[in-house]
Write a structure and sequence with these properties.
Low-confidence stretches: 171-181
Number of helices: 6
Radius of gyration: 21 Å
Structural class: alpha/beta
């Protein structure tokens, strides 16, 4: 069995010739050791290919890269809607990035965030995934990357787990005028 066939068999509950060994694409450097492990049966799990295209026809997002006071690069994203704008800032951190500033900062952000959620449209987009699956070979399996939706989107991307969980008790829901919600 190939590494991909082993992983697929386990996911289907079928028997395999040996236990599959996997690792995410971002967790192993491309080097001689990686090649040796792949030759011995390692299967790379690649999460970089989306199967969904998100379109927000009435929202525009711009990005601006800058250097923070600590000397690290950061990117500020500004999303403009017909009812207001929101911003968030991320800092690259190796294979991932850290959100330094979330989109939700006060109750003044609700209208723009609600507009963004209602404006979003989702369409199937399989072409890149299918092409990558054929091109990458039998020692890679693709895990479709799909966008977070609903409460997951709010909790992870918009508010952050802490603010979402605290339900506004930390003052994050105060309006910019200082009035209580």
């Amino acid at each position: 069995m190939t590494p991909r066939e082993r992983v697929l068999a386990v996911l289907r509950g079928e028997p395999t010739d040996k236990v599959p060994f996997t690792i995410y694409e971002s967790k192993i450097p491309q080097c001689a050791v990686e090649r040796r492990l792949r030759n011995e049966g390692l299967c790379i799990v690649n999460r970089q290919f989306s199967v969904v295209k998100e379109v927000t026809p009435n929202c525009v997002t711009e990005s601006h890269t800058f250097t923070a006071e600590n000397g690290r690069p950061r990117t500020r994203y500004v999303t403009r809607t017909p009812v207001g704008e929101v911003t968030h800032v991320v800092e690259p951190a190796g294979f991932t990035s850290w959100t330094v500033e979330r989109q939700f900062k006060s109750r003044d952000d609700y209208m723009a965030l609600l507009y963004m959620a209602k404006d979003a449209q989702y369409f199937p987009d399989y072409e890149a995934y299918i092409a990558a699956e054929k091109w990458m070979g039998e020692d890679v399996i693709l895990r479709a990357n799909v966008p977070a939706l609903g409460l997951h989107w709010i909790m992870i991307h918009v508010m952050g787990v802490e603010v979402f969980s605290e339900n506004g008790r930390n003052g994050a829901t105060k309006s910019s005028s200082g009035n209580e919600p």
